[in-house]
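Reading a protein record of the kind used here takes only a little practice. Each token is a code from a learned vocabulary of local backbone shapes. With that in mind, consider the following protein and its fold in token form:
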Amino acid sequence: MLHVALWEPEIPPNTGNVARLCAATGAVLHLVGRLGFNLDDRHLRRAGLDYWPAVELRRHISIDDLVRALPAARVLPVSSKVQRPYASERYRDGDCLLFGSESKGLPPSVLERYTATSITIPMPGGGVRSLNLATAVAIVLYEALRQLQDW
């Protein structure tokens, strides 16, 4: 099982799309910190379609709460501010893929805390600062599943 954690997501349709990815893959969705919307937001529900009953959703006040809830998990922050490509990682069952908010990414304190496990999605075109949150989650989550499922 894999975990997907979103740090202070701001855009309901992105979180809804990530929830649908989690439903499709069996990953647990963790929402951490302040949300930029209410969990009953119609845009959030619409993006997740009728898959919400298939999503295991957990809320955490802070990164520390997330870590306490997953004591055996390795936390892998995904950020455009680090250099190690996500495809070079050897994923493990129970890993927690941590993604930052759409406008700010992850706080520097989180990246400093998890320097050894932080990964990035290369963007060789150089024309953008970051990818859409749901797109980034899909890229890394499916690579982790590919490795774990031996596809």
Q: What stands out?
A: The mean pLDDT is 91.
